[in-house]
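We were asked to recover a plausible sequence for a given structure. The inputs and outputs are reproduced exactly as logged, with field labels preserved.

PROBLEM: sequence recovery
POSITIONS: 288
GIVEN STRUCTURE:
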């Protein structure tokens, strides 16, 4: 008996030493920040302030004017305290979905807008995050980038609760803006088609398919983004070339931009931005 008590005592002492070595969870949220990330330390989540948020301007998001107008209108309603919707931005990679959400901070921070980035694996903490924000005077966008779920992901149900509410009402100062490369956020399998029923001329999808589609439908505003054609890609490349201080977008620069897109196998806003940084850097190095 004495040996067991001695062993327990040593184990407790060892655990105390290990806990002292682990990073401490901040006791208070830095509400003076403009943006936060939800971080988990020692099994506990907290809002970690982003000291240098990405301050991109709305004018830097090109070729998506219709989508930009809709999300700006929805966000303006939100920061003014009017009814507004959760937003799902879907479509081709690199077309400005995430950048557009980040640019909202530059436009509306002065009106009290704040952004909290939550990774997909941490979505189970959404009810806890919303509870932290309910009494705050600011307006918060919970931003989930590149969102999709597997069938067993626990964050799926947590997101449904925050989007639609459970027995309690949804928080008036919190919206969810999510980006995804696919409109239906959960995988769909061939076997699910066997659940489809035909009633006369009417097709009724099975319950599994209906459940998966229902998550996307909980976002009140859907914005679709499409792959750029060559002219659209070149317009974005020209925009960023000028933003980075090069005086003109001439025929040589145009050819270089097209060659860069061929090496990447894609034409998108992201590729255009990467080209502009590569080209501007090489020109600066040559001048030196």
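RECOVERED SEQUENCE:
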């Amino acid at each position: 008996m004495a040996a067991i008590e001695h062993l327990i005592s040593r184990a407790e002492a060892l655990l105390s030493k290990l806990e002292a070595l682990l990073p401490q969870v901040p006791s208070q949220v830095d509400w003076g920040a403009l943006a936060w990330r939800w971080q988990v330390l020692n099994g506990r989540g907290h809002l970690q302030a982003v000291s240098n948020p990405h301050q991109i301007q709305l004018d830097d998001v090109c070729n998506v004017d219709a989508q930009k107008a809709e999300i700006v209108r929805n966000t303006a309603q939100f920061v003014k305290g009017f009814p507004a919707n959760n937003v799902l931005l879907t479509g081709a990679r690199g077309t400005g979905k995430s950048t557009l959400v980040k640019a909202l901070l530059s436009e509306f921070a002065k009106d009290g807008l704040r952004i909290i980035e939550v990774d997909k694996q941490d979505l189970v903490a959404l009810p806890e995050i919303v509870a932290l924000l309910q009494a705050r005077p600011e307006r918060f966008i919970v931003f989930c980038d590149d969102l999709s779920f597997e069938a067993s992901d626990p964050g799926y149900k947590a997101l449904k609760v925050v989007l639609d509410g459970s027995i309690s009402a949804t928080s008036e100062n919190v919206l969810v803006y999510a980006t995804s490369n696919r409109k239906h956020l959960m995988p769909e399998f061939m076997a699910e088609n066997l659940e489809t029923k035909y009633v006369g001329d009417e097709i009724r999808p099975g319950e599994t398919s209906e459940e998966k589609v229902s998550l996307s439908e909980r976002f009140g505003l859907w914005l679709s983004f499409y792959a750029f054609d060559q002219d659209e890609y070149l317009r974005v490349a020209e925009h960023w070339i000028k933003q980075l201080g090069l005086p003109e977008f001439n025929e040589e620069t145009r050819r270089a931009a097209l060659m860069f897109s061929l090496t990447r196998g894609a034409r998108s806003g992201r590729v255009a931005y990467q080209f502009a940084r590569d080209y501007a850097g090489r020109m600066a190095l040559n001048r030196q």
